[in-house]
From TrEMBL:
UniProt keyword list: Glycosyltransferase, Transferase
Entry annotated with the keyword Transmembrane helix: no
Molecular functions per Gene Ontology: glycosyltransferase activity
Galactosyltransferase C-terminal domain residues: 153-198
Recorded family membership: Belongs to the glycosyltransferase 2 family.
Pathway this chain belongs to: Cell wall biogenesis; cell wall polysaccharide biosynthesis
Name this protein carries in UniProt: Galactosyltransferase-related protein
SUPFAM superfamilies xref list: Nucleotide-diphospho-sugar transferases
Amino acid sequence: MARTAALTVVHGRADHLATQERSLAAGDRLPDVRVVVAMADPDVPGDDVVHLAGDPRALPVAAARNAAAASALERGAEVLVFLDVDCLVGAATLRAYEQAVVARPDAVWSGPATYLPAEARPYRLEDLPHLDAPHAARPAPAPGEQQREDRWELFWSLGFAVHRDAWETIGGFDEAYAGYGAEDTDFGQRARRAGLELWWDGGARIYHQHHPVSRPPVEHAAAIVRNGALFHERWGWWPMAGWLEEMADLGVVRRDGDGWRLVEAG
């Protein structure tokens, strides 16, 4: 067995975090190391919580994930499993990630993600297999199956796992990104450039707890434009293009040459 860490960053989602903890405790492979990083949230319970100050631009998601990984590596973790705070794990998820990473440590591993319906709340762990309906925008191999993916733009950070050596090769998340969007797409591009592979493991299933969202996420427009511009500067193309087009239709952003800018209020 490889020493495996479950890593989560959180701000203001104590109820979702508590349910995630229950799902981890019910799994057939418990984490050897558990790290929770609270971003500008002193009310997150737990003696071992790592507290991170806020960023004046937006929530420091990239920096918080790096802090979580640093803490886990200091405690001897070999397999790093990152979980969005909204995500629950299936009974076999951590074991599937551990086995996949050990077998192929030169890859970034993801698993199918189901967005749970609001009407199914409160979520019972025993119901998760019956609610399994992976998101259609990503590959969803069956449990016991694996699939290589060449489209690195499909990487997302809801749930993924890497070996400590792969993490160090990539260099973690770029802390120049703050707030909503692009830091995970950037991470995927950096992993691709480093020569790693992207794989999906059907046993590493996660279940995203429902919460209200805006479509498009206009409250994050400033971060999307700022992070998107940084990504474009680095990689030559704009991420989150669908959101930007929809926000342009609403008059929130507008085209600016080959990029985007916020529409000034008033």
